[in-house]
Amino acid sequence: MKEIPADFNPQAYGRGCTLQQCEMLTRLAEIGMQLAETAGARALAAQAAEAQPTAGAQSAEAQAPDPGLAFARYAHLVRQTLAQRARAVKDLCARDGGREARRARHREEVEDVIIRLIGDDRGTDRARFSDLRMQLDEALVELYGDQDDPVEDRTVPSVVAGLVCGLGLVRQWRRRQPRYENGRPGLPAGTPAEIRAERARRRTAVVAMTEQCIAEVGDPARIADLKAGLAIRLQEPDIDTLLDTASTEKATVRLCRSLAIDLDSDICLENGPEALLDSS
Question: Backbone phi, then psi, for 267, in 5-degree steps?
Answer without folding.
Answer: -85, 130
